[in-house]
Each structure stands twice: as structure tokens, then as C-alpha cells.
């Protein structure tokens, strides 16, 4: 079939004839031209199981590959830094429990020690030991959840059940000591609310055995799993220098081979200088090594708790403090190694019953600031792996 | 069934339908803050095991769910998303507000960014107090909700009047 063009009046385009023999080539050319499909924009969150709550990720996709990812935060912003200006010091500890809600006790310690530094008092040795034990217990509880959750995110449901099961043992301990399963609010400026209940030390010893067993289980079940290794090895590599530049801290940075732990390298706090523990690192910096480091740190925490249980001295748990706490004017910066990384408080006091200003440096906020860089060029299923491996808490990001 | 639309359900049939409805609650988990972990413990931990109550916690979307548990702080930025997903749920739908934040703002009652109570946005059936509530409290809330479902009429008029009933608080 031959087609002859009939140009419209006044048009300058020439007549053209298409040879039917050439049509086949034209058709082939159409097939071979790569279709430009445009980018697809995928909205992960704000309600998505992989985002641990309410992180929203706007991901631009080219097929299965991520071109760019934008974390949109603020869905859990509760205005801590503003509220602390209207609260007294003992009331603030109630609030900051809930910043990183998995390891509530570890949040309290830096703030309370900041107030103690300004008042120039120190908690008695027994209180220091109990604080160390409870901080490490909350670290164990956080990491046990991570060890289970990470399995869940790459498609294995069983580890999540194990994680929740073994975590209950730790929560029982925290509850029997503090009265709160989740948010203990146990620290007082100058010590602790109560002494440990009778028989608690023996309970804690047997619970640590559960933790060691749980770590063995996770090592065999998850870390030794071929599918897990295939999903996580070489995924989401954070180079050490870049991690430091972005302010990544804690286990995420140690998994990139940076040997830095505030419990050992920072300003000495609690009884960590007297404990014998190893800071685990891993040279790879991928999601797999983050799992490895956290698994080893869980064991190391359990060992630290056992050491504290052996060495805990007798004595009071509270120093003498005035009934109404007024903190002298001054400024202080205290940072601790929280389960998720470096957590610090910059407290400015003007001599009143409440702080004038509190700046909260939370670990997860800096940890996820690397996400836009980290998610570039990865595949969609790896986004979930990377998010799970970085292990952030939304309250810790948004505050 | 034409009978349902006319609101003319024989009582035994109502009871039978309610009985099957209350033991297959598809629950959409709206995990927001601290309470989400306790909700996770209630669902995933073998110690509490909420699924034995007939709650199925894994709907892929709100369009497949009967029950939503708002667990945690609702911020003003999050509120439109909650309203939107609630409206996607098919009727009859039930809401459990878990924790002090979702009930009334909780410790953030004077914060500039927190919605003081999810009941300002969506109607709530059951309130669970606590900060955070224990997993047992969530189980209790589900049992109370099942009681309410069992006693519901399922004619059109009765469903329309559902929100005039008393609100339940887990104590």
C-alpha cells in the first residue's frame, strides 16, 4: 500500500511516499527505541511498617532503582525543647523518657547528670551502679527488639517473636525495680527514687543468661542465615569518613569501622571506667555489619551488667538535696552513649526551678541525615533493609 | 439481603452475624509513638498473643480493616492523614484510642504541635488510659469492644445511631 501525502494549501512540506518495504524497519525501530517512562514517585509513609512509625520518605524511582529519596520528618514533633522551658527539673525527666521510647532510662541519665553538675552534687556510688545496670538493661531491651525487627523487615517473621519474647525478661526486671515497664522515670537529681527490691540481683543474673541464649539464637537463626546475608551484605555501605561527616554515631558508626564509644572515650560517666568491656567494630559498614555490631554489643552489655551485679556496693541511693530543687545559673553540656548513638543535652540555667533552655542532641536525627545520600541508586527492597539496619526511633528524630 | 436494608433483622440472625463479626476483627495498626511498641508486644509477643481473641493484625490497607488502634501522640501534621485513612475504612468501623496522648494530649497537653485528643478528628469507641498502657489493657479494650459488637443491632437505623451510645473507658 502506498500513501501519497496531500499537503494543505500554503504548506511548504514536500510530498512524500512511503515504500511498504521500509515499513517493517520502521516498526522494528519503534521497538528498539527505549521508552522513556518518566520517574515514578513513591511515597513511603507517614504510616508504613518499614519506617518504624511515622517517617515519610518521598522516593523517586526509575524502574526498581531509587534516583533520590527525601526524608520528610516532623510527624512526631512534640516540641520537647519548648515544653522544657515550662517544666521544673523533676518534671523534665518525665518528658525526656519519651524521646527515645525504647531506651527510656538511658535518656534520663545525661539530663539528670547535667543538673547534678550544675548543682555540684554527685549521686552515691550505689546509685551510680544501679544507673549503669538499668542503662545497660535498656540497651539490651532496645537491641533485642532490633535483632528481631531486622529479621522481620527482610521477610522473616520468626525472629520478631523471639525478640519480643526475650525482651519481656528485661522489661520484667526494669518494672520490678522502677515500677514502670516502659517509662521508668526512676532518676532523681542526686540519686534514685528507690533502692532495688529484695532478690533483684539474683533475678537479674538469671535474666542475663536468657540474653546470652537469645544472642546465640539470633546468631544462628539470622546472622548465619544465607538469605539474610544475601539481603544485607554490601547493602547501604556508609564509608567511615562520610559517616563522621554526617554526624552518624553509635553502633552505626562502629559498624563502619570507627572505634569510638563515648562510654570509653568520652567524659567518664557512671561506672564505665571501672568496667571491662570491648568496643566492637566491623570494617564493612553495610547493613549486615550493623546487625553484627549490635548483636555483639548486646552480649557485651549483658557482661557489663554481670560485672556491676558483682561489684555493686551497699549504701544509700540518694544524696541530700533540697526539697524544692533550684539549679544555680550556668551552662553545661553532657553527652552519653545511648543505644542509638550519641545523645547530649545542653542545659542553660538561670537559677530557677526549671531550665531556661535545653538543647537536645539526639542520635537518630543525625543518623538518618545520611539517608538521601545512602538511598541513591539502591533498589526498592534494599530501602527497607537500609531503614531497618540504621535503626532509628521517630521520637528521637523529631523530638 | 433486603432484610438488612430495611432494618428488619430477626434477633437470632443478628446475634449470629454479630458473633461472627466480633471474632474476626481486622485490625489496622496505627503505630505512632511509644504505645506502638506496647501494641507490638500485645500482638507479637507470645506472652500476650492478641490473635487468640480473634484479632487479625495484618490488613494490607485500611480498606480491609474493621478496627483501628490509634496508639501514640497525634500531631497536627499527622492529623489529616489519620482522618483520611479513617474515611477509607468500610463501615461498620471501630476506633480504639490507646494511651494518654491519643486520648487527650497526655504529657504534651501544652505543646504547640500536638493534637489534644484524637477524638477531635475521628469518633472513638474505646479509650485506654496509661502512658503507655500495658498490653493487657489493650487486650481488655478488645474484649470490651467485642461485647459492644455482640449487643449491636445491625439494621440501618440502629447503625446510624451507633455514635449516640456511651463511650467506654478501660479501667
State the end-to-end CA separation of chain B: 39 Å
Reading side by side through the largest sheet of chain A, how are the strands ordered? 1-2-3
Named at the architecture level, the CATH assignment of chain A is Orthogonal Bundle
The strand count of chain A comes to 8
Number of domains of chain A: 1
Shape of chain A: globular
Order of helices and strands of chain A: HEEEHHHHHEEHHHHHHEEEHHHH
Radius of gyration of chain B, whole Å:
16 Å
Summarize it.
By secondary structure, chain A is of the alpha+beta class. Helix content of chain A is 47%, strand content 12%.
Q: What does this protein look like?
A:
The complex is a heterodimer of chains A (399) and B (171). Chain A is of the alpha+beta class. Chain A has one domain (89-369): Cytochrome-c3 Hydrogenase, chain B (Orthogonal Bundle). In chain A, 47% of the residues lie in helices and 12% in strands. Chain A is built from 16 helices and eight strands. In chain A, the strands form three sheets. Chain A has a three-stranded antiparallel sheet with strand order 1-2-3. Chain A is globular and about 100 Å long. The termini of chain A are far apart. Mean pLDDT of chain A is 84; it is low at 1-11. Chain B has a domain at 59-152: Rossmann fold (3-Layer(aba) Sandwich), CATH 3.40.50. A six-stranded parallel sheet of chain B has the order 2-1-3-4-5-6. In chain B, strand 1, helix 3 and strand 2 (55-56) form a beta-alpha-beta unit. In chain B, helix 2 (11-22) runs antiparallel to helix 6 (135-150). The longest helix of chain B has 16 residues, at 135-150. In chain B, 42% of the residues are buried. The model of chain B has no long low-confidence stretch (mean pLDDT 81). The A-B interface holds A 46-47, 53-54, 74-79, 82-83, 86, 94-95, 98, 101-102, 145, 160-161, 164-165, 167-168, 181-183, 394-395 and B 30-34, 36-38, 40-41, 44-47, 72-73, 75, 77-78, 81, 85, 107-108, 110-114, 131-132, 134. Chain A: Belongs to the complex I 49 kDa subunit family. Chain A: The chain crosses the membrane at residues 370-394. Chain A: Pfam families: Complex1_49kDa. Chain A: Keywords: Membrane, NAD, Translocase, Transmembrane, Transmembrane helix, Transport. Chain A: InterPro entries: NADH_Q_OxRdtase_suD, NADH_UbQ_OxRdtase_49kDa_CS, NDH1_su_D/H, NiFe-Hase_large.
Amino acid at each position: 500500500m502506498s500513501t501519497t501525502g496531500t499537503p494543505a494549501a500554503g504548506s511548504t512540506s514536500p510530498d512524500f511516499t512511503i515504500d511498504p518495504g521500509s515499513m517493517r524497519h520502521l516498526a522494528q525501530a519503534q521497538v528498539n527505541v527505549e521508552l522513556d517512562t518518566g520517574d515514578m514517585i513513591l511515597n513511603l509513609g507517614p504510616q508504613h511498617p518499614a519506617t518504624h512509625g511515622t517517617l515519610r520518605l518521598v522516593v523517586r524511582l526509575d524502574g526498581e532503582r531509587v534516583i533520590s529519596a527525601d526524608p520528610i520528618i516532623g510527624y512526631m514533633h512534640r516540641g520537647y525543647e519548648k515544653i522544657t522551658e515550662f517544666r521544673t527539673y523533676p518534671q523534665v525527666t518525665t518528658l525526656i523518657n519519651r524521646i527515645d521510647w525504647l531506651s527510656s532510662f538511658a535518656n534520663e541519665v545525661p539530663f539528670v547528670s547535667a543538673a547534678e553538675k550544675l548543682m555540684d552534687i554527685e549521686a552515691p556510688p550505689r546509685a551510680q551502679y544501679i544507673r549503669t545496670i538499668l542503662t545497660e538493661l535498656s540497651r539490651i531491651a532496645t537491641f533485642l527488639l532490633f535483632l528481631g525487627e531486622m529479621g522481620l523487615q527482610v521477610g522473616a517473621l520468626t525472629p520478631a517473636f523471639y525478640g519480643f519474647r526475650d525482651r519481656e525478661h528485661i522489661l520484667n526486671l526494669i518494672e520490678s525495680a522502677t515500677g514502670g515497664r516502659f517509662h521508668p522515670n526512676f532518676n532523681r537529681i542526686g540519686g534514685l527514687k528507690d533502692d532495688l527490691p529484695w532478690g533483684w540481683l539474683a533475678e537479674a543474673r538469671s535474666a542475663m543468661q536468657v540474653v546470652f541464649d537469645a544472642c546465640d539464637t539470633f546468631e544462628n537463626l539470622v546472622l548465619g542465615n544465607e538469605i539474610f546475608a544475601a539481603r544485607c551484605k554490601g547493602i547501604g555501605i556508609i564509608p567511615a569518613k562520610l559517616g563522621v561527616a554526617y554526624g552518624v554515631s553509635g553502633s552505626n558508626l562502629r559498624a563502619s569501622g570507627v572505634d569510638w564509644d563515648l562510654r570509653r572515650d568520652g567524659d567518664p560517666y557512671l561506672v564505665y571506667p571501672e568496667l571491662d568491656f570491648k568496643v566492637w567494630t566491623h570494617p564493612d559498614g553495610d547493613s549486615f555489619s550493623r546487625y553484627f555490631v549490635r548483636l555483639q554489643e548486646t552480649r557485651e552489655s549483658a557482661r557489663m551488667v554481670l560485672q556491676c551485679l558483682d561489684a555493686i556496693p551497699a549504701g544509700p541511693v540518694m544524696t541530700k538535696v533540697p526539697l524544692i530543687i533550684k539549679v544555680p545559673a550556668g551552662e553545661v553540656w553532657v553527652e552519653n552513649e545511648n543505644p542509638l548513638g550519641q545523645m547530649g543535652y545542653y542545659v542553660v540555667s538561670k537559677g530557677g526551678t526549671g531550665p531556661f533552655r535545653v538543647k537536645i542532641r539526639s542520635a537518630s536525627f543525625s543518623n538518618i541525615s545520611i539517608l538521601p545520600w545512602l538511598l541513591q541508586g539502591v533498589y526498592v527492597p534494599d530501602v527497607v533493609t537500609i531503614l531497618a539496619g540504621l535503626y532509628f526511633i521517630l521520637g528521637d528524630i523529631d523530638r | 439481603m433486603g432484610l438488612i436494608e430495611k432494618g428488619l433483622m430477626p434477633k437470632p440472625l443478628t446475634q449470629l452475624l454479630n458473633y461472627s463479626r466480633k471474632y474476626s476483627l481486622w485490625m489496622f495498626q496505627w503505630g505512632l509513638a511509644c504505645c506502638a511498641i506496647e501494641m507490638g508486644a500485645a500482638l507479637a509477643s507470645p506472652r500476650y498473643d492478641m490473635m487468640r481473641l480473634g484479632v487479625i493484625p495484618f490488613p494490607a490497607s485500611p480498606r480491609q480493616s474493621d478496627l483501628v488502634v490509634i496508639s501514640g501522640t497525634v500531631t497536627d501534621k499527622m492529623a489529616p492523614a489519620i482522618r483520611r485513612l479513617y474515611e477509607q475504612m468500610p463501615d461498620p468501623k471501630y476506633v480504639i484510642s490507646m494511651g494518654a496522648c491519643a486520648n487527650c494530649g497526655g504529657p504534651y497537653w501544652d505543646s504547640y504541635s500536638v493534637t489534644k485528643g484524637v477524638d477531635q478528628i475521628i469518633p472513638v469507641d474505646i479509650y485506654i488510659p496509661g502512658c503507655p498502657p500495658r498490653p493487657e489493657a489493650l487486650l481488655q479494650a478488645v474484649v470490651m469492644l467485642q461485647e459492644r459488637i455482640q449487643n449491636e443491632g445491625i439494621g440501618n437505623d440502629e447503625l446510624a445511631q451507633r455514635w449516640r451510645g456511651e463511650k467506654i473507658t478501660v479501667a
